[in-house]
Amino acid sequence: MLEAYGARLAVSAPDAAVLQAILDGLPRGWEPSREALAAEEDIGWRFGIRRAADGYLIRDDQGREHACAELDLAIVMLHSQMRRFVGYHTDELVFVHAGVVAAGGAAIVLPGHSFAGKSTLVEALVRAGADFYSDEYAMFDADGRVAHYREPLVRRGARGQEEVDLGPGHALDPAPVGMVVLTTFRPGASWAPRRLSAGEGLVAMMEHAVPARHRPAQTMAVLRQALGGATILSGERGEADETAQLLLAASRAA
Q1: Is the pLDDT of residue 44 over 80?
Q2: Per-residue confidence (pLDDT) for residue 241, from 0 to 100
Q3: Which residue has the higher pLDDT, 54 or 149?
Q4: Domains identified in the chain and CATH numbers
Q5: Three-state DSSP state, 26
Q6: SS3 content of the chain, % helix, strand, coil (to 5)
Q7: pTM for this one?
């Protein structure tokens, strides 16, 4: 049994080596549950990987199995399902699909779906001097501050998934939101964003919030609190390094 941010789940594997590989790739906030292991029939949320004739089968929280030929990719897919489960079922935090860095004690939140270029921009912001908080999820507490996710950035390259650990070995304090940046990459684009209202920003953030349908009232209340004093910008961007410098300059001037 594992526990993460108040949500508990069970994980199984065909042998100790595969189980250890699954556990080694989880964020530092995930730990073995202190509760006694329940009988199998009492466990409502079980994830796992098992061997099949042509590779592996990944079990999600609904009991469905998905085929995968390679173990490394199977573990990546399992982690994604487990993280999303925690985002739905924790009552402690509101998870939003977003990259997050902090500069000058305030968070810069980059909401976006996969392949929107947020990981590249997060990495550029960290190289430019920001503190790395998350590549995958912004986790908002009840006061609207962003908690430190503590998971390595995942870069997609020619060899598949590659982890880049940009963060410190210790947890960073939750940070208030200073800026929300809604952007996608377009070759040759110049960063000339328009400023959005808090209401427009809230609508955009709800689109990326994991529990928006499951816990809409709580999600909206937390995000409204988070955006209360934030600058919200929207626009296409060009190269990540140039955009990172402009965002940090805007953050310092805010």
Answers
A1: no
A2: 95
A3: 54
A4: 2-89 (no CATH), 94-253 (3.40.50)
A5: coil
A6: 30, 30, 40
A7: 0.77
